[in-house]
Amino acid sequence: MILPIVAYGDPVLRKETEEITKDYPNLDKVLENMFETMYEARGIGLAAPQVNLPIRLFIVDATPFEDDEDLSEEERKFVATFKRVFINARILDETGDEWAFNEGCLSIPEVREDIFRQPEIVMEYEDENFKKHKESFSGIVARIIQHEYDHIEGILFTDKLSPLKKRLIKSKLANISKGNVSVDYRMKFPNAKKKR
User: Fold this and answer.
1) Do the domain assignments include residue 195?
2) CATH code where residue 90 lies
3) Which H or E run contains 105?
4) Would you please indicate which residues are annotated as catalytic (active-site) residues?
5) What is the Cα–Cα distance from 135 to 122, expressed in whole angstroms?
6) Is 152 in contact with 47 (CB distance < 8 Å)?
7) Mean predicted confidence (pLDDT) in 131-146
8) What's the count of helices (H) and strands (E) in the chain, helices before strands?
9) Domains of the chain: total
10) In what order do the strands lie in the sheet with 120-126?
11) Which of 91, 114, 140, 144 has the most CB atoms lying inside 10 A of its own CB?
12) Is 148 a domain residue?
């Protein structure tokens, strides 16, 4: 089932998320719905708060980057098969010189900005079977993970912009929260005027 993606301005995007356990109700269905929703919106990652669930869960599918000519051959091979579920994730370390990449977000349509992030991360997480992992990621995969991880921490990519950039997009963000934006996927707008 395709779920509505929560738009900028909804309090769930700022909530502190909770860890989940194996007995979380209907987790298989939640994951299936999240992947279906992400693909329908042509996304490469989706966090549970974006579908109105304040839990420490996000998904990533980096495979659209396999044709990216800016990536090394090794990176392209890695992203070609990179599809993961991250449950109760914690980033333990971020290293390297920050680099800029133009990011967007399904919850903040029509806004794209260069965001600086460190290129290497070490994280602990559980997969969909609640098997624990401690793993290092780098490059574009690390960036996608960092973006989705921010969601479960109540952080949006726009929070990382300079005060000037924030002022420049302020009216765009207000319009998004009111539903004054054109999207071709289901969204839930927190401040949309009710239709009579």
Assistant:
1) no
2) 3.90.45.10
3) strand 99-105
4) 148
5) 6
6) yes
7) 96
8) 4, 9
9) 1
10) 45-47, 57-61, 83-95, 120-126, 132-138
11) 144
12) yes
Tell me the residue range of the domain where 26 lies. 5-188
pLDDT at 33: 98
Element (H, E) at 45: strand 45-47
Tell me which DSSP letter residue 190 carries. T
In a domain, 63, yes or no: yes
Mean pLDDT of the chain: 95
Alpha helix stretches (DSSP H) within 41-138: 73-79
Task: Name the strand (E) or helix (H) holding 176.
Answer: helix 163-178
For 47, the token pair is 């966090």
For residue 116, how many other CB atoms are within 10 A of its CB? 11
Encoded tokens for 15: 């909530």
The DSSP 8-state label assigned to residue 192 in this structure reads P
The answer to whether residue 193 sits within a structural domain is no
* Of 152, 159, 156, 160, the residue nearest 58 (C-alpha): 152
Name all contacts of 34-43 with Cβ < 8 Å and 24+ positions apart. Answer: 34/3, 34/59, 35/59, 35/61, 36/1, 36/2, 37/2, 37/3, 37/5, 37/185, 37/186, 38/106, 40/2, 40/185, 40/186, 41/5, 41/106, 41/185, 42/185, 43/106
